[in-house]
Amino acid sequence: MSESVKMVEELLKLPQKLCKTCGMCCKIAIFKGELSYEEVKKLANSTTDEISQIDGARDFLSVFVPLDSIEDAKKINKSFVENILKTTKNSNISFFTCKFLDDNNRCKIHEDRPLFCRMYPIPHEKTIYFDDCGFKEKGIENWDKIKQILTDLENKKNS
Ligand code: SF4
Ligand code: SF4
Question: Which ligand has the shortest distance to the CA of 27?
């Protein structure tokens, strides 16, 4: 394995101790692509979309339920909701909450939680961090380093 690949692999792993266990990423979420609940359900039941997309939608709906209204979503995290609404192209976007978070911000199905919960947050330009997320600074820093490694590799290939 090349040194660059090893470095990227290391940078993708964020130290778990950075999590403040605030539970915010479980209390409120959107589905990638900023889909509405109906759109996520359609994807989960699709027979023609990519299998990874269909599985992603199914996994998501196995734990997340839609919040009744934008107002309910704002009660959980106003700035997150307002920021998403400012930029989304989908006027029907849905906000979701996980049904497995307990009152102490602990996951009731920790051992069996879906893969996307285990992997969140991955350093990437599309990753959304909550304002006080303990991973935010390191995640952004690592993504900058990954981008640099990828640019260097691209330049090497073209030289
Ligand atoms: S399944 Fe657990 S880790 Fe995943 S969103 Fe729900 S409470 Fe959070
Ligand atoms: S928002 Fe960040 S700090 Fe809070 S529980 Fe989720 S990953 Fe941990």
Answer: 1
Other CB atoms closer than 10 Å to residue 155's CB: what's the count? 9
Residues contacting residue 77 through CB under 8 Å, at least 6 positions apart? 24, 27, 28, 130
Determine the atom of ligand 2 nearest the C-alpha atom of 18. Answer: 3
Lining residues, ligand 1, CB within 6 Å: 26, 63, 98, 100-101, 107, 109, 113, 117
Q: Provide φ and ψ at 107, rounded to 5°.
A: -80, 125
Q: Looking at the CA of 15, which ligand is closest?
A: 2
pTM of the model: 0.90
* Domain boundaries defined on the chain: 26-118
pLDDT exceeds 80 at position 1: no
CB atoms within 10 A of CB 135: 22
Beta bridge partners of 101: 107
**Predicted confidence (pLDDT) at residue 83 exceeds the cutoff of 70:** yes
